[in-house]
Amino acid sequence: MDIKITIVGETEVGKTSLVQYFVNETPSLQNSTTPCASFLKKVAMVNDKVINFQMWDTAGQERFRSIAPMYYRGSDCVLLVYDVGQQASYEQLKEFWVKEVQSKCPYHVIFALVANKQDITEQKVTNQEGRAFAQANQLEFYETSGKSGAGVLQMFQELAQKVIDQKQNTQMAKEDTSKEVLVRTQVTQVKQKKDSCCM
Ligand SMILES: Nc1nc2c(ncn2[C@@H]2O[C@H](COP(=O)(O)OP(=O)(O)OP(=O)(O)O)[C@@H](O)[C@H]2O)c(=O)[nH]1
Ligand SMILES: [Mg+2]
């Protein structure tokens, strides 16, 4: 199964380092900003299912904002990342990114608020604050560090499972709808036969 994940958030919050950690399973802290976006792939097992992770790591610099929808529109899951040491990166998610992605993605997309750089000692945004905001806005919430790797692999695994569940539910709903249509068609056909019968 393919799972498409897009990572958004302000510049320097650690998006690239986070996704690189997931792909390489070892710290790969970045020292250059991402221009436009980069595409990464990983095949991994999620609860005995083979999953092809397809990930767009977008550019956080403001000049690239207008192209971000090209990446998150077809996604199954969007990660909204902030740096717990940078209040402004959290405010930007609250004021801009959350509304932006929620208004432009279909209802079944899974959104996750990611409180990154948990390794730093001077946390400006508390995890309680992030979690409360996430709960109030139908977002999953994760605490991660691309530096130590804390929470990273578990987050991608959990999100993949949520996407799998969501896809199965959507598939079941589709099957139910087509069964209902089939039954309704049969009922109509029977009724039409009866109507056309002279008895
Ligand atoms: N302490 C700490 N530093 C981190 C962590 N993740 C990334 N960094 C550092 O933060 C800076 C920005 O990291 P990137 O991964 O390039 O950030 P980005 O969000 O991809 O930035 P853009 O590509 O400009 O949008 C780099 O100096 C990283 O070394 C982390 O978890 N902890
Ligand atoms: Mg980057």
TrEMBL record:
GO molecular function, one term: GTPase activity
Keyword GTP-binding: yes
Highest rank taxon of the organism: Eukaryota
Keywords: GTP-binding, Nucleotide-binding
SMART domains found in the cross-reference section: RAB, RAN, RAS, RHO
Keyword Transmembrane attributed: no
InterPro entries the record matches: P-loop_NTPase (IPR027417), Rab (IPR050227), Small_GTP-bd (IPR005225), Small_GTPase (IPR001806)
Protein name: Rab1a
Lineage: Eukaryota, Metamonada, Diplomonadida, Hexamitidae, Hexamitinae
